[in-house]
Amino acid sequence: MEPSPETEAVINFLNDSVEGGLRKRNDVAIILELAMRADNAETFNAITLTGTGAWKVYGTLRRVRPGDEGYRLLEEEFARQLNALREHIAQLMTEASDETLRRFDDVYFGMSQGVMRNLVDLSHDLSKIKEMQR
Questions:
Q1: Which residues contact 40 (CB under 8 A, 6 or more apart)?
Q2: Which candidate in 50, 122, 125, 132 could, as Cys together with 85 as Cys, close a disulfide (CB 3.0–4.6 Å)?
């Protein structure tokens, strides 16, 4: 899926504004493009909000050790946030091409460690977008 010139301009701005750039630049562009085409800002905002939540919980999980008080609750909350993020992204995929759908299925909707890392990286980018919205 090729992003529109408008989406590309927004992504370039975001990429330049985030220290070190976006980790999942092309995927953020696809999500933004799908939301724009569907005139669905509400779902895009839900995606950024959920991604921000997942990123914050992930940051907290990295600072505590397994067995520490509350660790299990943090793990459960992290899993809930990632599942909600997937659900919101899936809402936009109804208009995606088969190629885009297959790619997102492999990258974000599987159950491997690689998928989890991809979701964390995407959550990072979404949290940076949310910061800029404030």
A1: 34, 91, 92
A2: 50
Domain boundaries, the chain: 5-133
81-127: per-residue pLDDT in tens? 999 999 999 999 998 999 999 999 999 999 899 999 999 999 999 99
Can you tell me the distance from the alpha carbon of 124 to that of 48, in angstroms, rounded to the nearest whole number? Answer: 10
3-state secondary structure the chain: CCCCHHHHHHHHHHHHHCCCCCCCHHHHHHHHHHHHHCCCHHHHHHHHHHHHHHHHHHHHHHHCCCCCCCHHHHHHHHHHHHHHHHHHHHHHHHHCCHHHHHHHHHHHCCCCHHHHHHHHHHHHHHHHHHHHHC
pLDDT confidence tier of residue 44, bands split at 50, 70 and 90: very high
Neighbouring C-beta atoms of residue 5, cutoff 10 Å:
8
Of 11, 45, 50, 6, nearest in space to 27 by CA: 11
